[in-house]
Design brief:
The complex is a heterodimer of chains A (77) and B (264). In chain A, 57% of the residues lie in helices and 0% in strands. Chain A is mainly α and 77 residues long. Chain B is of the alpha/beta class and 264 residues long. In chain B, 33% of the residues lie in helices and 19% in strands. The chains are: A mainly alpha (77), B alpha/beta (264). Chains A and B meet through helix 1 and helix 5 of A and helix 2, helix 3 and helix 7 of B.
Chain lengths: 77, 264
């Protein structure tokens, strides 16, 4: 991350997990240890392990699943 | 003309799939407009450049999608006309299934401004990695699903066929983001011209968070109306037949099957 901003430990961890191959390897080998090291709470660790994106959304206060596609639609033809 | 527009791709999976040059365009812009799969990516972009505006604000219920896209492009162009360095940061690849960057760049150039597009890792790029498909092996055709359905495209059944936005199949109003069981069943019937009902297809979704795994659900074609179809679902139709050599053409070139496959 370039700047600290106001991201939570959970958000920082998820961003780092997408950027850092060493962390990704550590997480894949021992997810609990990687999350402990990143300072995640027990509840956050459970959400991550479950892939609970709704719980993560609530935890970080952001809409994690608001996927909206810019569509090339037939009406555009 | 000092205004400048860059449209860059952020990749599919949060922060880790963006290119170095795309990240630089974001960091060096006077203002960034974003269109990303979730707010976490937008927040990350705001950390790269605090002056970031979310284009999602232009969506509204009942508004025609083309009007939304024109409004998004115009929002970026207004800032370009002020002489600013503007960056549009779009998830995936900014030129694939994304009309706004194309529209904005075309208009900016028409008005005499410099405008560039930087590629990003698209859902299609992820698909090849996740499903271990090499498009060079037997070839790939790709269509927007409803366009494939309505515009008489012909699939090459010896190659892979990728049908994007299967979750919107038959949606013709431009005002909703869903399909219907009737449309899906009609599409199954349509595909039965070329594929058996039991032909195995793959419902694919790229991961957009590093804790997610991609979706690769294999189903029989005739089970499509019972499957979960989302906005981001792509249907992959594997080949239904082997590639066939054009022996007549080969002969006209003085070639044969033996000569083209000979390793000696």
């Amino acid at each position: 991350m370039e700047k600290d901003g106001c991201a939570s430990d959970l958000e920082k961890f998820l961003i780092a997990l997408s950027e850092d191959s060493n962390l990704r390897n550590e997480y894949q080998e021992n997810p609990k240890a990687a999350m402990e090291k990143a300072g995640l709470t027990h509840d956050e660790q459970v959400m991550v392990l479950r892939g609970d994106t709704k719980g993560i959304q609530e935890a970080i206060g952001k809409d994690v699943e608001s996927l909206i596609t810019i569509i090339i639609h037939i009406n555009n033809k | 003309m000092s205004g400048f527009l860059s449209c860059v791709g952020t990749g599919m999976n949060l922060a880790g799939q963006i290119s170095v040059i795309s990240k630089s365009y974001i960091q060096n812009a006077d203002i960034v407009f974003t269109h990303t799969p979730h707010e976490m990516t937008t927040n990350w972009l705001q950390q790269l450049n605090p002056n970031t505006v979310n284009l999602h604000q232009y969506y509204s219920d009942g508004k025609h999608r083309m009007q939304t896209y024109e409004d998004m492009a115009e929002a970026m162009l207004v800032e370009v006309r002020k002489g600013k360095k503007v960056c549009g940061a779009f998830y995936g690849h900014p030129g694939i299934f994304a009309c706004v960057p194309h529209m904005a760049i075309k208009q900016a150039k028409k008005e005499g401004f410099k405008a560039v597009m930087e590629p990003g890792i698209s859902a299609e790029a992820c698909l090849y990695a996740d499903l271990a498909i090499d498009p060079g092996e037997v070839g790939v055709q790709a269509f927007e699903s409803t366009q494939f359905f309505f515009f008489d495209h012909m699939p090459n059944t010896a190659s892979y066929v990728l049908l994007w936005q299967i979750g919107l199949i038959g949606e013709a109003t431009g005002r909703t983001l869903s399909t219907s069981k009737d449309s899906i069943r009609a599409f199954i019937d349509y595909l039965s011209q070329w594929y058996s009902n039991e032909h195995e297809v793959i419902l694919y979704e790229a991961a957009v968070l590093p804790i997610e795994t991609f979706r690769a659900e294999k189903i029989a074609l005739n089970q499509l109306d019972k499957a979960q179809l989302n906005m981001k679902t792509t249907m992959v139709i594997p080949p239904a037949r082997e590639l066939e050599l054009n022996t007549e053409l080969l002969a006209s070139l003085g070639l044969s099957k033996d000569t083209i496959f000979n390793r000696d």
